[in-house]
Amino acid sequence: MIRVAEPGDREAIISLLVGFSAEAGTKLSLDHLNQGLGPLLQDNQHGVVLVAVSNDEIVGYCVIGWSWGIESGGQEALIDEVFVLNSHRNSGIGSSLIAGALESASERGAKAVFLETENDNPGSRKLYEKHGFNIEHSLWMRKLL
To answer: Half-sphere exposure (CA, 13 Å, Cβ side) for 130?
Structure first.
């Protein structure tokens, strides 16, 4: 089952965020993760967290952030992270999370949905392409403030 995360899901989501961070090699602190997650559990102003629940356990999540773009013609969405526990991968949960994200973005009135994935992760690209995402030849750049 896919649903919108609630404040009571914080501990379970933080555990998954730690797993994602370790897998991605970012090793973000618990304080950093809590600061990023907190506002998303309070309201949907900045975005939404969807969770995948199996046997009353949260086994995956998808973070969607809202933005606005002239090029897109208005509301945009960014799928920021998708993560599923190893024990539940290749069972359709990631696909269900992506479908839920696209539905949430559509309900919000988004004109476009963006995501970022790593060059060395062809499995994730295959999943995203299955849901209609195309590779763009843009280069993302970032500066932490």
So the answer is: 13
CATH label of the domain that carries residue 11:
3.40.630.30
Q: Apex CA 9: angle with CA 110 and CA 131, to 5°?
A: 35
Residue 137 forms part of a structural domain: no
Provide the domain limits for residue 56. Answer: 2-130
Sheet of 112-115, strand order: 2-4, 47-54, 57-69, 74-84, 112-115
Contact 18, 11 (CB under 8 A): no
In-domain check, residue 106: yes
Whether the CB-CB separation of 129 and 114 falls below 8 Å is answered with: no
Number of folded domains that form the chain: 1
CA 64 to chain centre: 5
Structural tokens at position 111: 């004109």
Give per-residue pLDDT as tens, 15-35. Answer: 999 999 998 888 899 999 999
Residue 58 lies in a domain: yes
Predicted confidence at residue 103, as pLDDT, reads 97
Whether the model clears a pTM of 0.85, i.e. scores above it, the answer is yes
Domain membership flag for residue 142: no
